[in-house]
Every structure is written in structure tokens, then in C-alpha cells.
Amino acid sequence: MPREVRDVVFVDGVRTPFGKAGGMYANTRADDLVIRCIRELLRRNPQLPPERVEEVAIAATTQIGDQGLTIGRTAALLAGLPKTVPGFAIDRMCAGAMTAVTTVASGIAMGAYDIAIAGGVEHMGRHPMGEGVDPNPRIIAEKLVDPSALVMGSTAENLHDLVPHITKARTDAFALASQQKTAKAYANGKLQDDLVPMSIRDAEGGWGLATVDEAPRDTSLEKLATLKTPFRPHGKVTAGNAAGLNDGATASLLADEATARELGLPIAMRLVSFGFVGVEPEVMGVGPIPSTEKALRLAGLSIDDIGLFELNEAFAVQVLAFLDHFGIADDDARVNPWGGAIAIGHPLASSGVRLMTQLARQFAEHPEVRYGVTAMCIGIGMGGTVIWENPHWEGGNK
Amino acid sequence: MKAPNEVVTRALLRQVNVPGLDRPAALITLDNGFDHTKPNTFGPGGLASLDEAITAALAADPAFIAVTGKPYIFCVGADIVGLPQLADRAQALEIGRLGHRVFARLKDSSVPTFAFVNGAAMGGGLELALHCHYRTLSGGAAALALPEVSLGLVPGWGGTQLLPNLIGIPAATQVIIQNPLMQNKMLKPKQAAELGIADILLEPADFLERSLEWAAGVVRGQVTVTRPEVDKDMWAGVLYFARETLNQRLHGAVPAAYKALDLLETAKDADFAAGTAAEDEALADLVFSEELRSGLYAFDLVQRRAKRPAGAPDKGLARTITKVGIVGAGLMASQLALLFARRLQVPVVMTDLDQSRVDKGVGYVHTQIEKAVIKGRMDKNTAAKLYGLVSGTVDKSAFADADFVIEAVFEDLGVKKQVWAELEKIVSPEAVLATNTSSLSITEMAAELAHPERVVGFHFFNPVAVLPLLEIVRGERTDDVTLATAFAVGQQLRKSSVLVSDAPAFVVNRLLTRFLGTVFAAVDQGTPLDVANSALDPLGLPMRPLALLQLVGPAVAYHVGGTLHAAYPDRFGVSENLKRIADSGQPIVVDDQVNDEVAKLLVVGDQPLTAEQVRQNALDALAQEIRLMLDEGVVAEAQDIDLCMILGAGWPFHLGGVTPYLDRTGTSERVTGTRFLPRGAASLPA
To answer: Is A37 considered catalytic here?
Structure first.
């Protein structure tokens, strides 16, 4: 049966405000966070008949309790989608939502379905990293992977060892810039439209409403310099130059381009290519370098063709290693213009879609840009990159 | 301020930023600190907390004030447990005024106020919501109601004044008076929204978020709330009709219902302050009425005692039931088959003498399932399961692996003994043998069995699916395992079980027969049928005696009467006139009027009694019989008699079942020398 690969578009994406683990979402269920996102996505796109959604892929790293039970399917049911809409759970650690997007995009491209929802959730307060893990003893017995590979902060320290020119001062400066860019983006109303207000509740205050991210903070180089280095004595990685432990969820709508046009759905981005590549688990932070190279190669593009970057800031050192590799300045305006995970937070499996949602809004503001990149490092040594085309591109240079 | 034992529902205040508003809104959460199984209520402490929260909210000059509940519960009203503890009328007045004063702050506020009714809202909880300027309602809320009249109160925190002026007098009369008197019917969210109680119905999944967004829209003028204009012209007509209906049903017996009518009348033109002052007076009167005290007692019986049956053995002894057998395939047996299959979800097999009866029984069950599916009360998967579970056969060996076999064959001791003897050869020695007899002796029925300890009485009330009572009868040799199993099955069937001893006709039928017996004795003496029939009107019973007779069936009544006459010939007479009515095959009442065709058949004496005398005879007979039953140990306590009469005969809350009424009219002391319940337990304190 001859068939063509179809163009896949990113229609829309939303997220809950991101909380700090143990903070505003302490009494909120993880599945409720992502259910809220799915409902809002449908509400913002009333021209989409719910039964036209044919797949729901939801990522979570720790798939137990309220993040278990095949969360894509149960979240779809609880969100009120018709029972005929299937769903599944997906896991690629920090790149869970990104993988949800590339997976359903692949299904759309090959014609298995026309419209899908992809997203992710991580409630790190209820499900701390490493909850319930049972690493195979061969990992140590056969020295397959250094045990430090399982502790993300340690992998960042390991990465520092390999790139000694990236000093702690440089990572702190990058982290401060991330905070400042996010503060400015909030002040200019750039981030709010992505956010879905989320009900919260605690015993003393009763019900409340989460409307902004909890993690961003007012800081300075002086303050950042005083923070502890919990992963290594006299190390470089601190809570200030890394993403924190966060709770949050995202969801996005992906569609076959022709179907999107037929239904009158907005087209925010067009998928160009994607790549996932494995690296040494002990230095998982370098992952986005080879994955971006792969995605560029598949797209027939070079790094110079990319006008906007949304890079997940798991650790400042890992972003800086990427920028150094590709010869991009630390303060290049194309990179994370509204700040990143260091300020906003990184609820593991949900973050990939946040990068896309923000890139989509920046595309709309930058019709001179044709291509953008979303990329992130992934635990156990991987990188993931998705390259997108700006449908608003007016034929300018970048 | 806090009442003794009050579980205080706190009003938790939080400032929330709502997108689109330039300043925070005040969100007040009502929460008593427990989960939904202990719902929010308002006592003095709770009202004081709400008062403080409103003060604090206003001080911050919020964009709006919204009140919502804890998960699943908005608020279920005043803390009625505290009502009997009020020392005097002045205190009752004060409670009414306190609620009014605090709630009025939400009505009079210059800042827009909202109720986000997220869960069950009843009584004072719903009245709080009615005071707010706007209401959102969750489609997930379990129920909404103003049930006060069912207990013997009126909605006394503004409900009678606000509701008719919001949704109109016909709907308000339905919610405040008719529903409470119809087995306390409640509104589903959709119905409440359609009546206009809420301005918008929202889905439960993101109810609070959408409510806040909607409220912001209202405040910003982007959402316009339109409500239909209330028609004042029909006010008097609707209330006149409602009063006539009440008179026909209750004959003045429920003061709360009449006070509610009066207050609804006031609501038409009175200003709010005058209307609420009238509510305060009505509430204070009712708090110190016998009917309320009986109502609270009855409420407690139904809510608590019914769930923990007195004298039931340890639940742990109960055996698991994996298959049910039903001897007989007549109407009763078929109703039982459906009930068992539906609630126990195990195979149920019916047997009868020939295939055509079996087919008819199974056919009845299938038809009922089909009807339930068509009416949307059962989903297709459940229906498919039930079709598979219910079967019929003429071969009793199908009972071999049943753990519970119930018989519903002809009411004759010989027939029933024969059934059990035959079955004992088929079933295991542990299988429970239950009988749905309404009057025969369990002990005698089991006498010749090898295992009489597994025989138990399991007496349902017709219609089986509707009446919640199950009399579980312990025979002389019934053992604890059998009894525990019977109670466990009763609970699975969602019935309220009462343990009774093996005395003729048990509780409900014995009392109703005794009671009807006095009425028929009066007729036999020459009292006109309509005088006798209306003699009990002042009690406000659910049915007049002749209507009850018609429901039970004159033939059945005559049969049960015969059994009781045999047991207690000096108290239970045999009325030949009853036999004449049964033999006539004609209805004794038509459209609530005595059927003259049947009346002509009666042979009567020439010593008519007055209605007053008939009533006194009937009440005296009840008091005497109840005392004898308690002395015989038919049930553990008078409370169980009342529970049986409420759940099995539908006797009203305002009588407390029956013994509180016999106490308060002085009947019990005059007839038996003593009260059934201590003063204050179901009545005003001394």
C-alpha cells in the first residue's frame, strides 16, 4: 500500500503553573494536574470535536500511584474525552513529554490517526526522583555504569570535569540571567497565556488558585555564590544554577496539517525533524549536542539556520556546554529568551511541551525566523531534539 | 462561641489572584476538618467563624467574595444535634437571628458575593448560598434540598423568603414543602439548575477554576446573568392549592408544613427583615414543639440505629453467599430474584412446579431489567450480567450448590415444611434456608429438619424494591452464623434490618392488624365506614385505614388476622365484614372515597362510635400491643418498634414512628401505666 508521510503541526499547548515540590501542589494529585491541562486544551479549541482526538500520550517518569494506571488513558477518561479515545503512558525521564509529542507525531505522519494529545506530568513532591527504583545489580557488578549516573546532580558535576573552562561563575551568571529573563517575560505578559490556573487546597487556608510559577526567585550573583554544592564537596552545581524539584503538567495538541486546516485549528509550528541519541550516562548533560546534530542532519539544516532555541535548563553547565559546542554566546538573544527551567522549574516528564509552547509563541512574534529548536538532556545518558518550522515565517533570513 | 459538642465548621479565608482581575478575590472555604463522611454543618461556632471570615475578607477590599465547601460537601445545614440542647425559646430565637445576621452580610454586601456550590448543599447550607448574589453549581454535587419540614422545622435562615423570590412560588413550594414530605426527595444538580437555584451548572472536573473564571467575568461585566422574572400574580393561588393538598394528606398533623406555607405567603410582599423575623419566630416555636423532637428522634433512628441493628451477631460470622435459590416464581419470588441478582451479583435460580410458571417468573425479571435500561436507570453491561445471573428450572437439584435459599410459596405451614424437607435432601448442611413468611412460626417450620439452626425469617415489605425494612426473624434454634449471614445479606440488599423474635406476624403486620382490627370492630358495631376511615386523620398517617387495607389486599389481611386471632383470640378479632369485602373482589375505596357497592355488603350493628372514640380505641390498642411485644421480647427496645413502623409502614417522623406519639398523648401511661421512652428522648424535656 503506497502512502505518503504527512506534515504534522503543533496546534496549541498549555501547562499548569509549575510548583515547588512540597509547595502549592502538596495536596493536589498529579493526574488532576494533567487532566486540567487536557480539558483546557479542548476548551481553547472549541472547533475540535472531542471524538476527533484519537490518541492521548501522557508521560511521567515515576509511573506509580497517581502517575500510574496507564495515565494517558485514565487522564483521557477523567478529562471527559469520549470513551472511544485511547491513551497510553510514556516514559523517557526528562524528555517524556517531548517523546510523547514525537511518538504521536510519528503516528500522525504515517496516517494512523489525525489528531492527538501529548503531554506530561511530574509531581516530584509526591514522587521524588528515584522513588521505588530497583537498579539491576549488574550495573555495579559489571561496572556498566558508574553509580553517579543515577544522580543527576552528580552527572552535572561530572560534566564540569570534562569542560573545565565552564566556571562556576559562568554558570551562576547564566542562572541569574535565566531568572531575570523570566521575571521580564512575566512582567511583559509573555508566559501567562500558556498557564492554566489550577485549584489548590490545604487544611489551614482552604481552597486557592495557582496562577503563577512558584519557583522563580529574586536573586543575585552574590547570593548564588553562597549556595551549597550538595553533589560534591567544593563542587560547582548548586540549587541556584540548576532546575529545582517541581510539580507540574503540560499538554499539547498535535495534528495532521490538512486535518488542522479542515477543522480551522491554528497552526503554531510545523514539525521538521527530531532526534534522540544516547551518550555516556555519567555525563548525560552532553546529550542534546549529538541529538541536535542528528536532527539537523535529518532536516538537511545547519545550526546557522536556527533562529530560536528553547533549551531545557536542567543544569546551567549542560546548556553552556551545548552553546560552546555550537559557538553560540551565553547571552545570545535567540536562546531561551524568556528564561528557562532554572527559573520556571522542571517537573521532569512535563517539560518538553513547555519548551514547545514557548517556542510556538516566540515564532508568532518573530516572522523573520524560519526554524527553531527544542532540546533537552535526559537521564541515563540521552539527548533529545525537535526542530520546528515557523508557519508565520515571511521569508526573512533566519 | 461554640455549642457543647459542636464540630465547628471553620470558614477559611484565602486571597486568590484570578486572571483578568486587578485585585485579589476573597475565597472562603467551609471545612470542619473531617472528610466527606462527616459533612460541614453550622452551629454557633461555625457561624462565628464565617462572620469573622467575612469581616476579614471585606477589610481587604476584594474584587469579590466567594464561599465554597470542602471536597464533595458544601454544607448540609444547621447542626441539628445541638437543637435539643437549647435551654429555652429565647435561645432558639437567638440561633435563628445569629444565622440571619451572618448570612445577611453576604446579601447586603456592596462587594459582589458568590456561592460556589461544589457538593451537597442542604438546609442552612443552601440558604447560605441563596444569600449570595450569584451561584455556580457543580454537576457532581450529591444533592440539594431544604429538608427542614421533613424533620419538623422550617428553613429558618432565609430559605422561605429568598427561594420563592428567586425561582418563583410553584418551584419554591415544591422544594420547601412537597419534596420533604415525599420521603425527603432531594434535587440533583441538573434539576436545581433548571429550577433556577444556580446561575450556571459546571462540570465537577474543574469546577472551582471555572467558577472563579465565571465570577471574574461577572465582576468585569463580561458575563451577564439573567434570571426569569418571578410571577407574583400566581402566589396566592399556588399556596391555596398547596394548603388544600396538605390538608388532604396531613389533616393539619405537621405544624412545620403549615408554618412553612405561612412564611411563603409572607415572602410575597414582606421586606426581607420582616420575613426573616417571622422565620425566627416560627423556628423558635417549632424547636419547642413535640413534633420536632419526635422528628429528630426518628431521624436518628433512621440514620444510626438502622445501620447498626440491635442484637445482630458479630459480622465476622457471616458466610459468603455465592449463589441464591428462590423457591417459587410468583410475583413476590420474581421481585426477590431481581433484587438478589442486582445487589448480590451472584447466580439466582428460581424454581416452581411447572415450566410455565418458571418462564413467567424469569420473564418478569427480564422485563423489569429491560424497563430499567430503557429508563436509563441501568447500563447495558449490568443488564447483560443480570440476564445471565437469573435463571429458572422445575428441577430443585439446581439448588445443590446454593448457599442461601429463600422460599416465597403459599402462606401455609404444611406447604412450607414440605418445601424445606424436600430441600434439605438437596442443599448442603450449611446452606441458609430463609422464609419470607409474614406471620408463620419459624421455629415450627424448622422443627423436623436435620439442621433447624440454618432456618431464619427474612420478611420483606411490598413493594420489595421500595420499602427499606427487612424483619429478620430468629427462630428458637437459629444459630448466630445463620443470623449473621442474614444480616450481611440484608445489608448487601441495602435494606434496613431489624432483629425480631419468632412471634406471630412479627412487628409491622402485628401492629397494623391490631390497629386495623379496632377500626373494623368499630365498623362491625355500626360506625359508618367514612367515619371510621377518617378517624385517624389527625395523626397524618400516609394512608387512611381502608386505603391501607386495599394496598395489603383484604384477603391477605384476613389471613394474617386469622393467624393472630389463633394466637391471641382476646385481642385480635375476626371480622366477617372483612371477609365480605375480600370475597366481593371489589375495591373498597375508589378515588379516596368509600365504595358504596362494597359498603352495601356489610352487616353492621347499631352502636356506632364517634371518630374520637375510634381513634382512642386504635391508639389504646397500639399502646397495649407494643407493651406486650416489648415484654415478650419481640424486639430489643421501643426504638426498634418505631424503626419498623417508619421503614416498613411509612409512619411519619412527626409521630416518631409511634411510641413518642403514644407517650405525648398520654396514651401509654393511661393504658400501660408507663411511658415507652423517657421524657426528653423523643419529646420536650420535663
So the answer is: no
